[in-house]
């Protein structure tokens, strides 16, 4: 370590009181220094007692950049913005819920020609056509990307979304349609779509191919997890081969609302040791106590196992969907953590700091 020492030397004898020498030894390089308190010490020099007062300055420790546990390297954000969106085309748009499902959900694929270089876990913005009630262009809406970086066609030139059509009745008894969701669900192949992004780093996948990845989704919150799972189990990469455990919990109201069910079941057949799949169908399933099977109810059946996994430093939890789902999961973990003398909410903060607890809810 480079140092600079400035010392004042004085002899205790009165005969030498006029003798004073000041010596500076300085590193030839200009570097930042950090001062430390003055140090006093008596030493013997040639039989005389010498009092030395020295101030030593040392190089300030360099700041070490925190290395992310996620696949952040080279991630692009905000390449396209609302004032300069990318215009893609709808290539495919198909309903993926049953006719008796409470609401429609559609899977759609758009061309990007590789111009929106997204990663698994990111989102894109969509600016619907038309103007609002004030005569201004509609504002963008963000949607989690439902395809891997290679895209559904495997050529890195498309992006896929999973969108639920929003239709509801307001207090006045009027039917209200969500602007962007209905715009998207009504698209026909060939139609142009203005997109922005990609955005977001919260939901990026972990780097560790041996990690345990616990995915908690409700409804269209499944989108980022479909992107993870395609990369893990349907694709081959020279620099990535998943050897860990992927455990998906998906909560929906009815069986006809289960999204991408056939895809996930194929993954489970392909990699039974690496993929676990649990559905929670609230209107059709109940637990042993007769309670409706919400996602937290299903997780409670594996509570002890999940808690043991959460104590490992290579377990990553990702949550996407309705805002209220996190509280239900907290309720499960509080008592489990308490048995080990751990405050769950404090522990969750540590997990968040370590990038092991990742939430995107709406």
TrEMBL record:
TM ranges: none
InterPro entries registered for this protein in UniProt: FAD-bd_FR_type, Flavoprot_Pyr_Nucl_cyt_Rdtase, FNR, FNR_nucleotide-bd, FNR_plant_Cyanobacteria, OxRdtase_FAD/NAD-bd, Riboflavin_synthase-like_b-brl
Any one GO molecular function term: poly(U) RNA binding
SUPFAM superfamilies, per database record: Ferredoxin reductase-like, C-terminal NADP-linked domain (SSF52343), Riboflavin synthase domain-like (SSF63380)
Keywords noted in UniProt: Chloroplast, Electron transport, FAD, Flavoprotein, NADP, Oxidoreductase, Photosynthesis, Plastid, Transit peptide, Transport
Binding locations of NADP(+): 144, 164, 220, 252-253, 282-283, 292, 321-322, 360
Record carries keyword Flavoprotein: yes
Cofactor annotation: FAD
GO cellular component: chloroplast
EC nos: 1.18.1.2
Swiss-Prot/TrEMBL GO biological process terms: photosynthesis
Family annotation (Pfam families): NAD_binding_1
UniProt key word Plastid: yes
Catalytic activity: 2 reduced [2Fe-2S]-[ferredoxin] + NADP(+) + H(+) = 2 oxidized [2Fe-2S]-[ferredoxin] + NADPH
Compartments (UniProt record): Plastid, Chloroplast
Record-annotated FAD-binding FR-type domain positions: 83-205
Family that this chain belongs to: Belongs to the ferredoxin--NADP reductase type 1 family.
PANTHER family: PTHR43314
Stated name of the protein: Ferredoxin--NADP reductase, chloroplastic
Species per Swiss-Prot/TrEMBL record: Lithocarpus litseifolius
């Amino acid at each position: 370590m480079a140092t600079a020492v400035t010392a004042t030397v004085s002899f205790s004898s009165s005969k030498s009181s006029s003798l004073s020498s000041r010596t500076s030894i300085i590193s030839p390089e200009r570097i930042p220094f950090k001062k430390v308190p003055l140090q006093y010490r008596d030493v013997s020099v040639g039989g005389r007692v010498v009092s030395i007062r020295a101030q030593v300055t040392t190089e300030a420790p360099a700041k070490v950049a925190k290395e992310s546990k996620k696949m952040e390297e080279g991630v692009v954000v905000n390449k396209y913005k609302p004032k300069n969106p990318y215009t893609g085309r709808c290539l495919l748009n198909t309903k993926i819920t049953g006719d008796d499902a409470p609401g429609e959900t559609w899977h759609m694929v758009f061309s990007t020609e590789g111009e929106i270089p997204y990663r698994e876990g990111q989102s894109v913005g969509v600016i619907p056509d038309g103007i609002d009630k004030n005569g201004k262009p509609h504002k963008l809406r963000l949607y989690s990307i439902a395809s891997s970086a290679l895209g559904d066609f495997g050529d890195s030139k498309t992006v896929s979304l999973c969108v639920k059509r929003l239709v509801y009745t307001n207090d006045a008894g009027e039917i209200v349609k969500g602007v962007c969701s209905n715009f998207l669900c009504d698209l026909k192949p060939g139609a142009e779509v203005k997109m922005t992004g990609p955005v977001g780093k919260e939901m990026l996948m972990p780097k560790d191919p041996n990690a345990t990845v616990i995915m908690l989704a409700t409804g269209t919150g499944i989108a980022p997890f479909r992107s993870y799972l395609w990369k893990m189990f349907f694709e081959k990469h020279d620099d990535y081969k998943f050897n860990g455990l992927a455990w998906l919990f998906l909560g929906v109201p009815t069986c006809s609302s289960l999204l991408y069910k056939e895809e996930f079941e194929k993954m489970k057949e392909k990699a039974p040791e690496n993929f676990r799949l649990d559905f929670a169908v609230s209107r059709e399933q109940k637990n042993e106590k007769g309670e409706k099977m919400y996602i937290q109810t299903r997780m409670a059946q594996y509570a002890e196992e999940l808690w043991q996994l959460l104590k490992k430093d290579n377990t990553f939890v990702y949550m996407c969907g309705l805002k209220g789902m996190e509280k239900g999961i907290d309720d499960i973990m509080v008592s489990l953590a308490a048995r080990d003398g751990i405050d769950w909410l404090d522990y969750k903060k540590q997990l968040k700091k370590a990038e092991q607890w990742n939430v995107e809810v709406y």
